[in-house]
Design brief:
The chain is an alpha/beta fold. The protein folds into three domains: 74 residues, no CATH class; 74 residues, Double Stranded RNA Binding Domain, CATH 3.30.160; 79 residues, Orthogonal Bundle (Arc Repressor Mutant, subunit A). It has ten helices and six strands, in the order ααααβββαβααβααβα. The chain has a four-stranded mixed β-sheet, sandwiched between helices. A two-stranded parallel sheet has the order 5-6. A hairpin with a 2-residue loop joins strand 1 and strand 2. Helix 8 crosses helix 9. The two termini are 36 Å apart. About 2% of the residues have low confidence.
Amino acid sequence: MRCSDVEALWDEMREGIEPRNDHVVAHLRRCRDCQDMYAQFEGVAYCLSCLPIVEPPQSLVPRILDHIKSSVRTRRAGTNGSSTSPDSLALLDSPLGTLAIGWRKAGITFVGIARENDFETIRTLVERRLRRPVVPADAPAWVRETVAAFFATWRVDERVLDVSGLTVFERAALEKAAEIPPGEVRSYGWIAREIGHPQAARAVGQAMARNPLALFFPCHRVVDANGGLHNYGYGVDVKARILRMEGYRAVR
């Protein structure tokens, strides 16, 4: 099982950012999935440590260097290993305020509530979330129509969304969240059970936290086991506001 927090940590390490030990320890203490993986591989690590040290052949060194260089070129070219142009980014007005919308030929890649007034600040935040560059552009008609249709129906045609940058688990969790009817809520545990990982409620929460297409994949409709709004990237008040707009009324 893969943990999205750990994946993000590896991404930062590859980019030269030193991980903070206290953050890693704190994550391990609260994440059951990582605890299970640690227990599983601790024995493997011990067995490996008992093996005799073998000097690699000199002919292997240039091959390793070539592999590293190739991996760096592939990473810079794009996640699919082929050259790709930056995502486009525009700001659009909505009933929730200004939205930052990112897209490319394959579909919309980012939706977020713009909490900053400076475009360059917003651009930096979007690039950090997508882990690739974005450029300013005028939103085409199909993007504007998708946004307008969502606020008219509280639904979106998933065929216009590009989720190629997400893991299989993240896609499954977000697509299941999209099945929750507008004005209703389901728990993290419900999503975990529905996608065949009944013990992965925490991992579902992490997938919701990393959702690059907020609103369109409605993580605001996902609550804790007791029905509490729990958390939301834009604040619990905003989560409650969106749910009220959809017609949700909490059961007292």
